[in-house]
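anyone else get weird line breaks when pasting these?? whatever heres mine. first is seq + tokens for prot A
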Amino acid sequence: MWRAFFASSLTLALVVAAATQTHAQLTTHIGEPFSDGFFASNGRGPGANCDTASSGVERLICDDPVLAQLDLTLSASYAAARATAVEEGSAALDKLSEAQEIWQTRRDQCDGADDLTDCIAQAYEDRIQLLQIAYQQIVPGGYPVQRIVDRFRDAPKPVMEAVRSISDCTLETVGSQTMTVYDLDLGYELWAVPCWSADYNNGAALVTVAYGDPKSVNAVMFERSPDDETAAHGSLAAPTVDIVTGQIYSFRKADEAGSCGEYLRYGWDGRETVRLLEKRVQTDCNGKWRDPNQYGLIYLAW
């Protein structure tokens, strides 16, 4: 799925990357990782810093034009993310720097992989995608709620077929059938379809539909956190969609008051790619409302 995203966004990212080649030269010290953009320096492109490459991974990035371009693209995305983090304060900047160092370590673990080039490329593509979504460098865009559809039978048949194909959706248990339809700038509609009910919670699936082609339908799948080994899932509890920023929020209550439960925040590219950005959990239920943003932090993507 990340490959589909990357194919659609790489052209824009490369344009941005080309504009960064005049930035100050980056070093390979751990404080400013090689992966901030090994080649982004002095407008000279790949090879400018190759005399400092020490590992097999670094030398391959020097030698392979595709990997070199991915490095430049990452440099552009990281520079934009860093500018945002600087505005947010030192804590945000520290988190971004730490995450980048962790990513660099993971990328360097490709050394010894059966297909070293593919392993490195996947590491770069995944990191570029995450930075672009997390820091809203690519967002779906859209307009206020386009319309409300009150009954399942009034939805396009392929939409309901897509929802029924989602394993965690049980339409028979749903009370309200009210669906929200958003108009996206990318030539798609987004349908939010209620698809399950349980104690204290209601869940919904999100489905994209191409303009003028109701058969071109895709269910949006939601990434699990690293502590959860189950597969991506196709619905969320009480989802709230911010079309303009590409943020999707979910709050699953564990008691009626909402004093405990699970809070998830996702970033979305406007099509099928959704990345989990934040997960918070509160297990201590006291019967009094708590702000889910104050639940215990389990996972932060960047």
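and prot B, same format (seq, then tokens)
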Amino acid sequence: MSGMASLPKRPGLPGKCDRLPDAIRAELLQRLRDGQSGSTILPWLNGLEPVRAILRKHFQGLRINDQSLSKFRRRHALGVARKGKVARLPYLVREKINLRLRDNQPYAVICAWVNRSRKLRGPSAIIPQNLSAWRWGGFSEWLQGQNSETRGT
């Protein structure tokens, strides 16, 4: 999990998902950001022994359900997944794009690198307008997370 932005704070009274260990919450948040559905996430999450132990201790063993997951998603502002071309790239590619944007590399250089490394051509190729849109959305969120991590919050 190295290089990940800091985890959102656990606001208010903790629900089932908010009580999870940081590493599991980080993975859950990433799966939600990647657009995985509850029907995919819930069996994975409820199958983890640390999760089952927390559910036994604090929630009479009741499993995490769609309602709990939706509440967690809303509490952490994950209601709308990014859907642009850059958002659909694999996580590690997006991380490298973010690092290059942070280092002020020109859009043309980043586009050439992504398109060459991902073998993208024609309509599927990343163009400067895609990076511009990402800079104001996904990159801004990533940068906020990096700044929070640096401040230790």
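btw re prot B: Residues 97 and 110 are 7 Å apart (CA to CA). The helical segments are 22-33, 38-46, 49-59, 66-75, 91-102, 107-118, 128-136, 138-151.
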